[in-house]
Design goal:
The chain has 16 helices and 20 strands. The longest helix is centred in the last third of the chain and has 20 residues. The chain starts with 23 loop residues before the first helix and ends in a 12-residue tail after the last helix. The strands form four sheets. The chain has a nine-stranded mixed beta sheet, sandwiched between helices. Helix 8 packs antiparallel against helix 15 and helix 11 packs across helix 15. The N terminus is likely disordered. It has 602 residues and is α/β, with parallel strands linked by helices. It is 30% helix and 19% strand. The structure holds NADPH dihydro-nicotinamide-adenine-dinucleotide phosphate and the ligand O=C1O[C@H](COP(=O)(O)O)[C@@H](O)[C@H](O)[C@H]1O. NADPH dihydro-nicotinamide-adenine-dinucleotide phosphate binds next to helix 3. It comes from Punica granatum. It catalyses: D-glucose 6-phosphate + NADP(+) = 6-phospho-D-glucono-1,5-lactone + NADPH + H(+).
Length: 602
């Protein structure tokens, strides 16, 4: 049955190939160092170990992946340069069994080897504990981190290395399919984690960090990844200090920046400008974790490697596209942050818009990061800025059900009582290009709704002159095909088709051709942060946001966000746990659309 490699593993074994060409600026030190070392200076023998990581990501114990139905997808032979991602990765460190020995600091005995240090700035925070450390552990567990790696936590909180390890050990989990040696792996991983306490605006504190990093690097080529897991108002100070006092002297330095990337065009441009004082564009990895989700990553595969979808992918056959995000909990605990942003900035302008761009782009020249991002930016620049009449906003209010009272948004102590910040929004967007002219792209995102789901729905047009129309009664909508890509939870891709109900009569029903991941694949789906962290380590920028994409995204939403705020538009209130404001239906109806997630069978 299965003939394609299906695992979450990388098939771009090229990341292993040596690079002498790729973007030099990301290899360049960023503050005053002048030595450059490229991957070509790393002995070739080290590269093969990386291949074994790639293979282990292809299947738990061998090169192949077993499907739930017993079929085996063959692994891809690990030939260097077989990557679909044409551009070779930069300066990759070698991979080998993850046992680190203590090195005497300060000696350049390892100058032919390289090392990667990942510093999590804001290590004491929520995201670091919840996502970043667990993702790094998962990568370690899969033998996907380089042989010489070190993880540093950096924050103001006073903590020892041991205390950091205790803190993060609470949130590390093991892969379901490989529990046996989990404890051992966890201990090994924790031994590679260290902590340095410092201020975010202190060059001196970062210089202390630099000294510690150097000790761990022990004279090897030093590659440094900083993950800014801190509130946005301190991004610039932290980047400045990291850049001036703790960037690599002879390898690459990269910085992962978390959203929010500003709150409108102006502030986003200011942030970009400030970041670029200290970093080159290709050192900046702007993360949108939705791009790291398995089914979002699969969008292009589905479309460009199956003959049956691409010919239908246009206004000729597609009636509308729906991008839906809902959470069944409120802003609990994050109300302070959220009130300054609202759901349009929190979800729609980034996560849903990024999915839209990937969905709607033209075929890129290659799978190279710049080719893909070039196509995405064209989509964004072809879009009409959102207008006020194409937006509906809502805010959840308290609701009592089954004797339990669920708080309203403004019941959160960190939210002003008179807040008009939307916790729900629906919007109709249009791409004014030849492929998508007139096709509504409807987006809907909300907190404290009745379910937790993220999905893409593609509703196709009616079959012209359908011979079987009368077998459906008058509801033509019911007779059109719909492709659903359920991003989460319970990942699936299904296509609603019309089918004859078996029997002597001629009755049609709607059935699903269903690719249900849990039934099809035994391998656990990696968390988005795992994929993105590994990409950042490997210098793969495909899933990160380029500054021109960001500018284009903000241009679409800034005018309407300003108008909503200036006119103090009152959101439609909806009860906690409901399906959201009824206004979303009117908006869809205006474009002759019915939300696909609300029908009797979804
Ligand atoms: N949490 C999440 O689910 C998500 C978060 N993000 C983004 O990731 C980043 C980190 O988020 P999160 O971990 O929730 O943030 P936190 O509020 O938990 O902050 C992280 C750390 O930053 C330090 N810090 C907090 N407030 C301040 C302040 N005012 N001044 C100086 N330092 C401060 C604290 O460390 P210390 O006091 O020890 O220095 C804190 O532990 C943010 O940009 C956020 O928008 C993005 C998506 C989801
Ligand atoms: O970026 C964000 O995403 C989360 C939802 O992420 P998910 O991976 O759990 O779907 C959302 O809760 C948060 O408000 C937002 O900032």
């Amino acid at each position: 049955m299965a003939t394609l490699s299906s695992s979450s593993c990388r098939s771009y074994a090229t990341s292993l190939s040596s690079s002498s060409s790729s973007s030099s600026s990301s290899q360049a030190p960023i503050c005053g160092h002048n030595q450059r070392i490229t991957l070509s200076s790393i002995p070739h023998r080290f590269l093969s170990a990386k291949i074994s990581c790639q293979l282990s990501r292809r299947g738990s114990r061998g090169n192949a992946v077993r499907m739930q139905d017993g079929a085996v997808a063959p692994a891809i032979t690990p030939v260097e340069n077989d990557s679909p991602f044409k551009k070779p990765k930069e300066n990759l460190p070698p991979i080998s069994p993850p046992v680190e020995t203590k090195e005497a600091p300060g000696f350049d005995v390892h100058q032919n080897e390289s090392t990667v240090t990942i510093t999590i700035v804001g290590a004491s925070g929520d995201l670091a504990k919840k996502k970043i450390f667990p993702a790094l552990f998962a990568l370690y567990y899969e033998d996907c981190l380089p042989k010489h790696f070190t993880i540093f936590g950096y924050a103001r909180t006073k903590m020892t290395d041991a205390e950091l390890r205790t803190m993060i050990s609470k949130t590390l989990t093991c892969r379901i399919d490989k529990r046996e040696n989990c404890g051992e792996k966890m201990d090994q991983f924790l031994e590679r984690c260290f902590y340095h306490s410092g201020q975010y605006d202190s060059q001196e504190n970062f210089a202390e960090l630099d000294r510690k990093l150097k000790e761990h690097e022990a004279g090897r080529v030093s590659n440094r990844l900083f993950y800014l897991s801190i509130p946005p108002n301190i991004f610039i100070e932290a980047v400045k200090c990291a850049s001036l006092s703790a960037s690599s002297g002879n390898g690459w330095t990269r910085v992962i920046v978390e959203k929010p990337f500003g709150r409108d065009s102006e502030s986003s441009a200011a942030l970009t400008k400030a970041l670029k004082q200290y970093l080159q564009e290709d050192q900046i990895f702007r993360i949108d974790h939705y791009l790291g989700k398995e089914l979002v990553e699969n969008l292009s595969v589905l479309r460009f490697s199956n003959l049956i979808f691409e010919p239908l992918w246009s206004r000729q056959y597609i009636r509308n596209v729906q991008l839906i995000f809902s959470e069944d909990f409120g802003t609990e605990g994050r109300g302070g942050y959220f009130d300054n942003y609202g759901i349009i900035r929190d979800i729609i302008q980034n996560h849903l818009l990024q999915i839209l761009a990937l969905f709607a782009m033209e075929t890129p020249v290659s799978l190279d990061a710049e080719d893909i991002r070039n196509e995405k930016v064209k989509v964004l620049r072809s879009m009409r800025p959102l207008s006020l009449e194409d937006v509906v906003i809502g805010q959840y209010k308290s609701h009592t059900k089954g004797g339990i009272t669920y708080p309203g948004y403004i019941d959160d102590k960190t939210v002003p009582k008179d807040s008009l910040t939307p916790t729900f929004a629906a919007a109709a967007l249009f791409i004014d290009n030849a492929r998508w002219d007139g096709v509504p792209f409807l987006m809907k995102a909300g907190k404290a709704l009745h379910n937790k789901i993220a999905e893409i729905r593609v509703q196709f047009r009616h079959v012209p002159g359908n011979l079987y129309n009368r077998n459906f009664g008058t509801d033509l909508d019911q007779a059109t095909n719909e492709l659903v890509i359920r991003v989460q939870p319970d990942e699936a891709i299904y296509l609603k088709i019309n089918n004859k109900v078996p029997g002597l009569g001629m009755r049609l029903d709607r059935s699903n051709l269903n690719l249900h991941y849990a039934a099809r694949y035994s391998k656990e789906i990696p968390d988005a942060y795992e994929r993105l962290l590994l990409d950042a380590i490997e210098g793969e920028r495909r899933l990160f946001i380029r500054s021109d994409e960001l500018d284009a995204a903000w241009s679409l939403f800034t005018p309407v966000l300003k108008e909503l705020e200036e006119k103090k538009i009152i959101p439609e209130y909806y009860p906690y746990g409901s399906r959201g404001p009824v206004g979303a239906h009117y908006l869809a109806a205006r474009y002759n659309v019915r939300w696909g997630d609300l029908g009797s069978e979804q």
